[in-house]
Each structure stands twice: as structure tokens, then as C-alpha cells.
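Handoff note, outgoing to incoming analyst
You'll be picking up this chain. Sequence as last confirmed:
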Amino acid sequence: MGRWPRTGRFPVAMILVGAMVATAVALAALVVYDEVSLARIRPETQRLLTQGLPRIRAITEARAALRKVEGAANERIELLLEGNPDGLVATATARRAFATKLDTFRRLPAYPDEGSALAKIDLAVRAFESQIDGLAATLLSGNLKAAARRVRRQLRSATDQVDAELSNLIQMDAAHVVAHAARIDSVERIATRGALLLGVVDFLVTLIGGVTVVVVFWRHERFVQARQDELEFFSARVAHDVVSPMQAAFLALKRAKSCGDAQVETMAEKGIAALGRSRQVVDDLFQFARAGAQPDRTARADVGATLGALLEELRPQAEAERIELSLETIPPCEVACPAGVLGLCVANLVHNAIKYMGVRDLRRVAIGVRVQARTVAIRVDDTGPGLPDGIGDEIFQPYWRASKLPGLGLGLATVQRLVTAYGGRVGVSPRAGGGVRVWFELPRA
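Most recent structure output, in case you need it:
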């Protein structure tokens, strides 16, 4: 396994892990900080909504009801002086409304520092009630003028006292409301600054991680480019080393072709054809390596011609193993890859089928082609022993081998890499009655 690239004195892995941990910590701290801030704001908001504002509203309504009692008493005296007894009903109604509003106010939770103010209100209300009761007694005595004087003097004074105490309590509650709002505002400002600070920290940490990733990718690109240059040089060297003896063999076979012996000439012609296909495979793989494993999208191969020529090359090996090698009728079609790559993929599959045939009575390898709308599917069926239970696509991994037969286990891996590079896919499945079907698809040209 390779090592992580290093940036400065520290490995990139440590920087990236540190950046991710710091980002997670910053986000967690931000969430916790927000929750703590909300926990401080909630009680203030709760008291503001359930205590401060409702008390101010209730006291204001009680003051309005108080003034209505005074007004009703004045109106009652005027009506009685005019000989109209309806004023008695109006005064009683206003008095009950005031008592109701006062009771509503008293049921609300009070602030701790309002005890003395509430006591003064109770004293003033009792004095007010006493004046109302005294007014009623004066009226019952029939002395309307005395009742009128009592309303204008004692009752008005008692009413003003209650109103003054209620007004004082409103001011105290208003001060509490302002204090609630100030504390909420203070916590909110602190929370905003803290959130901004944590956000800046999170941004900086993320920026450091992003810059590190960019540096890693930049260095990786340079590394890949260097490896591609090395691969191109190596491929050129291998191609030269392979093609040179092939050229010598080609010249020897060409001379043998003109020796006058018909059998030798036939064998020489087959050898020349095989060397030509091998040279094409070398050239195609060299171009593939030069492109940095980026295939030539303009390449195309005639499937029928390529597989027909390949069959003649593979048939002697199959006959040597007493295996019947067949090729189904192929409809006219082309695939988007070089002929050498197509032939190499099919040849690897056929070589594997022949190699792992084992001791079987029925010994057949069949190559089939199915032309589809956008792809061409090529399959190789054999009648061999099949794959072990539980084995599937892992056979396309490099160095995977199903037996101890000689080989490196790179044939199917090469097929998978080449087919995938040209936009196709590969697969394997067992066949009914024994054997294996290995297939691949390539885009139509």
C-alpha cells in the first residue's frame, strides 16, 4: 500500500482528519451554544408572556372598570335627583364588572418585589368599597343631596387612590417587562456574536481542509502524469522488445512461404497471419497505454472479421486439447474499440475456457454474438466443470485463480479493465447442465 502524500511537515491524512474533527466540534459547539442561549431566553420569554404583559393588560382593564363604577355612581345620583330609579341597576352592574377585573388581575402571578404595592391596592380597594356601601346607605336614607356630596368628594377621592395604586403597579410591571426584554436582547446579542465566532472558526477549518484537498489533488495529478510518462516509456520499450523478435519471425516465415513445399507454405501463411494479429494487439495496447488508459473513441472493429480471423488462430490450440471450438453466425456489426482489443478480450476468454476444461466427456467452447440497440454482447460458453459455489464477479480481480494450474490470473482482469475502459461491462454466470458463460458488452460503433 502507498503512503499518504505529505504537506509540509504533517501527513495529509492527519490534516484532513484534524479538519473534519475540528469542523464537527465547531458545529457541535454551535448547536450546544444555541441551545444554552435558548435555555436562557425561554424563561424570560415565558415570564414576559405569562406574567408581565398579562398583568399590565389586566390592571389596565381594572382601572377602566373602576372609572365606570365612579361614572355609574354619578349617573345614578343624577337620575335619582330626576326621579328615575334605573340608576340603581347601572351602578350594581359596573361594580360587579370591576370586581371581576380585579379578581382576574389577582389570580395572575405577582413579582416578588410587588408585595407592598399589592397591600396598598387592597387597602385602597377596601376604602373604595366602603365609600360605595356608604353611598348606598345615604341613598336609602333618602338624603340625595348628601349622597351627591359624598360622590363628589369621598367616592372620587377613594377612586383616585385606587387608580393611583393601580397605575403605580403598572409602572412596576412595565419595568419588569423592560428588564425581560433587555435580558433577552443581551442574551441574543451574545448568542449572535458567539454563533458568528463559531461560524468563522468553522469556515476557516473548512477552508484549510479544502485547500489541503486541492493540494492533494494537484500533487496527485502531477504523480499520475509522471506515472503516465513512465508507462508510455515502459510501453514503448516493451513494444520494441516484443516487436523486434516478431519481425525476425515474420521475415523467416515469409521466406518459408516461398520454399516450394505446399504444406510448409500453408503453415507459414498461418504463422504470418498470427504474427500480424499479435502485432496489432501490441500496437493497440501500446496506444492504450500512451493515452493513459483513455481509449480512442474513434476506433472501431468489425466483429465478424475480427472473430473469424481469431477463430483460425485459436482452433489449433483447441484441437490439441480435443475441444470443439465453434463460432455462431455473426450479423454485420462494429464495436467502438480497436480490433486488437476486441480480439485480445475474446482470446483471453477462449484461452481460459480451454485451460480449465479439465477431464470432461463433452468438450466444447462456443463463441456467440448478440447485436442489441446500442451494444454488442459477446459470450464464450464452455462445458467445463464450472465455478466453485459462491464465486461470481471476483474472478475478474487480478491474480484470482480457480485452480493450481500455471498462470498469473491476469487474463480475465485484463478483459475487465479493457472492456470497462471502452464503456462496456462484463459478467459471468453458470450454465445449465454444467460449464460457464463469460460475456462482455461493448458499445456499437
